[in-house]
Amino acid sequence: MSIRLGVIGCGDIAHFHIPAFQKVGFYINCIASSPNSKKIEECAEKHNIDNAYKDPKDLINSDDWDALLIISSIESTLSHLIDAEKYNKPIMVEKPVTLDYKKLKDIQYKKNIFVAFNRRFYSTVHEAKNFLKANQSSLIKVSIPERSIGPDNFNKFGSMLPYGVYENSVHVSDIINHIAGVPVWQKINSCNFKDKYSYIYASGKTKYGHDILLDLSFDSPMNFSIDILKNDQRYEMRPIEIGYKYNGMAINDPSEEIPIRRYMPNIDQTVFVNNKYDFLKPGFYEQAKAFYDFCEHYELDSRLANLIDAKNALKVLHQLHQNKY
Hints:
Elements: E1 4-8, H1 14-23, E2 27-32, H2 40-46, E3 51-53, H3 56-60, E4 67-70, H4 74-85, E5 91-94, E6 113-116, H5 123-134, E7 139-146, H6 154-157, H7 163-180, E8 184-193, E9 196-205, E10 211-218, E11 225-230, E12 233-237, E13 242-252, E14 262-272, H8 284-297, H9 307-322
Parallel strand pairs: 1-2, 1-4, 2-3, 4-5, 5-6, 7-10
Antiparallel strand pairs: 7-11, 8-9, 9-10, 11-12, 12-13, 13-14
Helix pairs in contact: 1-8, 5-7, 7-9
């Protein structure tokens, strides 16, 4: 018998999650969105979902679901999660759940709730984790380019970091926590311009003893990257979807075109994200499959993020502004 999955939310992200959850075997028989949503009927028809609720509370309090996917706006996500968790059924909720990690305190230990950090399921991230296991005491260099535009969060929970840091860059924060352990920042420097951050630079140690350097630069023309160095070996993700394994250096002699000697890193291997189905975003199928296995057999995939992981990913970023340890 198929596991009945209820969905709350019909925004753009729904069209990535829903096909993945259907592909792994979930029967999605009901969906809900905000009472004023004009997209709910269209979304239900597009994905062949029979029941469209006009109010998420009605779906949550119904007997129409065995598991729940919450992919609503950040402003409403935590409220829906709190309403649903009392039924003690499996729940997958879109990251970052909330902008204030302190609000997760009362529910953070719930073992049936998982957070959709799909990049944990990338093959490039898996290679990074293996590289760190084989190279203890490595140096990790992280670059996060983020836009400075967007609503200010200061009145929400005391941070002047742009909204996008907590909604988008939180992915990179979670990847670091997943592969190396949660960092403790030992030094934080920042540069402000016209009451906005220009960049934040931090250094510290991860839980597993690796040194880490973080460059959070706003409006910078660069890619997200994680660079792991150990002696003559190096593993770099730039962007996160592509990984490069380097071993030693090669010397390129001067030529007429380039009249200088160049020292270039030797690429041993290039790793791309493994996308099982071209019509799905990377990591979404694997994440949905891991959640399905939990719902059906209570098999727990170590890549599934929980609420403690979500709290830590937010907290690490929040500390960059607050300088609290």
